[in-house]
Specification:
mainly alpha, 3 helices, two-stranded antiparallel sheet, elongated, 4 strands
Length: 125
């Protein structure tokens, strides 16, 4: 199994989670994800090149496509992309929606007495 085949299975799950978030109208701010992607992919490029270049991590040449960013195989960036899409999608799906404000709740400008009870405010005399 090549790294692209392994990535395809994992990225299919990521795409499904993102699609569910979009269809549920609970998708994350894709602009924010895009901005995070710039930072995360740049850091991934730097650190992957250090790890592969120093020999800490190695890849079987028969299992990679040969496309590289520096000395790091392109396949290695799939994990960063997956994290950038999956985590915000799951966060959006799993965060409870805000409940509508109750009509019985005191208005935001209500005065409270010393005990914390809502009232008309402090009365003199």
């Amino acid at each position: 199994m090549t790294y692209w085949t392994l990535n395809a299975f994992f990225l299919a799950f990521v795409a499904l989670a993102a699609l569910v978030a979009v269809l549920a109208r609970r998708s994350p701010s894709w602009r924010g994800v895009g901005l995070a992607a710039i930072v995360v992919l740049a850091l991934t490029a730097v650190f992957d090149n250090v790890l592969v270049g120093t020999g800490i991590v190695g890849y079987d040449p028969d299992l990679i496509s040969g496309a590289k960013v520096g000395v790091a195989p392109l396949e290695d960036f799939a994990y960063a992309i997956a994290a950038l899409v999956l985590l915000p999608s799951l966060w959006s799906l799993l965060t409870p929606r805000a409940l509508p404000r109750s009509a019985s709740a005191p208005p935001s400008g209500a005065a409270f007495d010393e005990r914390g009870s809502a009232g008309r405010g402090r009365e003199d005399g």
